[in-house]
Amino acid sequence: MCKKFYYLFFCLLSCISYAKNTDVSNAAFTSLLDQSFPLKPQQIEAFKSAKASQEKAISADDSDATSRIISAQVDPAKRKHAPVVRVGVSGATVVVVTDQEGNIWPIEQYVSANSAIHVTTVKDSGSLILQSSKPYIKTNLTIVLKGLDVPVPITLISGQKTWDDMDYIRIQALSPQAKLARIGDVKTAPDYLVALLSGVPPQNAQPLSLSGSMDNNTRLWAYQGHYILLTDAILLSPEWISRANNKVVNTMHAYELPQANVLLLNNHGKTEQVTVEDKGDV
After folding, report:
1. pTM value?
2. Mind listing the pLDDT tens digit for each residue in 216-244?
3. Residues whose CB falls within 8 Å of the CB of residue 151, separated by 6 or more in sequence, listed in order
4. What is the per-residue DSSP string for the chain?
5. CATH 2.60.40 in the chain, residue ranges
6. How far apart are CA 124 and CA 218, in angstroms?
7. Distance from C-alpha of 187 to C-alpha of 189, rounded to nearest angstrom
């Protein structure tokens, strides 16, 4: 009888000990889970959703991109300030350099004053690709154009609400390509246009009245069913039929053009509209 009692007592102690050990093990396991994974599944989902919203807000770009045509003077007497390019941070800014007639002007080299604005160019092209690594930078870029003795400075700023995705910088001078084209124009232009460069209109040409011209260097005649124009500006519209130019920058140009009520001119970087008041008897 005693033996049975001791046996039962021993079994009871063993069960109690096993239960205690099991409780300790379960508690340790639960503690390990809490330490390794302190968040509940619902909390993890909420965290992931909040993180995604945060990243979306940070990466959102509320700035506006635009394109512009910017005039740049190479004559120090006429230049008030360097052209300003608003460089993108979230996107790249393309700068295309042209002469006063819109011909691409190849860039030979450039010097950037701040490495935070990355500059890329294609050899012998007239294009630059700019991108700023951080906002609120103001610096300058100096470019050397093929055949132009004077370097062209450009001011660069970043972090603006409105930035430039593409700018055309129009240099108020003629590129080597345009100068060669002008020589060809003089050789192939009608004789009366070449004579008009000296201020001598063709016989029977009828002078016409103009309004809107800023100076007296623009004159127009009706001749043989067309207009002929003498000006120190560049004719933008309508498209000319033939043209004669001398070889010196910013002097007189002679155009033959279709009859039109309005002429659009680039007068040393300023766009002007000239109206034909008296069409005459053509």
Report:
1. 0.51
2. 688 999 999 999 999 888 888 888 998 88
3. 142, 143, 144
4. -HHHHHHHHHHHHHHHHHHHHHHHHHHHHHHHHHHH--S-HHHHHHHHHHHHHHHHHHH----EEEEEEEEE--STTT--S--EEEE-SSS-EEEEEE-TTS-B--EEEEEES-TTEEEEE-TT-SEEEEEESSSS-EEEEEEEETT-SS-EEEEEEE--SEEEEEEEEEESS--HHHHHHHHHHHHHS-HHHHHHTTT-PPTTPEEE-EES-SSS--EEEEETTEEEEEESSEEEESPPSEEEE-SSTTS-EEEEE---SEEEEEETTEEEEEEE------
5. 64-171
6. 36
7. 6
Distance between CA 137 and CA 213 in Å, rounded?
Answer: 41
Enter the tokens of residue 185.
């124009």
Q: Which tokens go with 244?
A: 């004669």
64-171 adopts what CATH topology? Immunoglobulin-like (2.60.40)
Structure-token match 């055309």, residue found: 168
Q: How far is CA 131 from CA 94, 104, 119, 139, 165, in A?
A: 9, 22, 7, 13, 10
> Which residue numbers in the chain have pLDDT < 70?
1-30, 32-34, 36-37, 39, 55-63, 123-124, 181-188, 213-216, 246-251, 279-282
> Among candidates 274, 246, 242, 238, which has minimal Cα distance to 256?
242
Q: CA-CA distance, 120 to 131, in Å (whole number)? A: 9
Q: If we measure between CA atoms, which residue out of 185, 187, 189, 229 comes closest to residue 205?
A: 229
- Contact present, 187 and 262 (Cβ < 8 Å): no
